[in-house]
Amino acid sequence: CIFLSDGQEISNGCELPALTLTKGAAFTCEVTPRDDADSGVTVEVAGSIHNQAPSPPVVEVSPGAGDVTTTFQCLVTADAVDPDGDDVTHTATLMVNGTPGGTIKKGSELTCEASGSDGEASSSVASSAPVVVGNAAPVGGTVTIEPALPIATDTLTCAASDATDPDGDKVTWTYAWDVAGETIPGPTLAPGEFQAGDTVTCF
Known about the structure:
By secondary structure, this protein is mostly beta strands. It has strands at 2-5, 8-12, 26-31, 43-48, 58-62, 73-78, 89-96, 99-100, 109-117, 126-127, 131-132, 139-146, 156-164, 176-179, 182-185, 188-189, 200-202.
């Protein structure tokens, strides 16, 4: 066996070593049968080196934790590699519960899927470790103390409203008071728990 390319011998044997030729190169293999006395008619077979697909990239969801107020991205952290040395482009998609472009909610499982292409063939799809969307804290709200101009014999009441939850969860309130550096739990402050002249804060 003899392998030839462009009329030049490239391998004397019945195997062509890997990486001898580059993608697209044409070659012929000439095989001549022989016995102990004579040689037969040489047979020639033609072939060419085909394109190889890139290896898959390495991907991740960034950041690795967050809630519905977080902007998540599908990132390629290590490029796909093309065995032929071709330029590689990547296609990356953020998956929500296995669906591209789904609505992100508390508890959603996010993954990043991506592949590399050399323009002729694509790699297998790489998938990242999942990231589960966490709970988002309520935001906003208004707090009032009644009466607005209390005296020492009044019972003070703290009322909160208008907070919203990004996840759509029901918002409940926990009340406490700061009276001269002392914390007193509960939505009301009874006479005797504060004195005239005290600075009272509800939180």
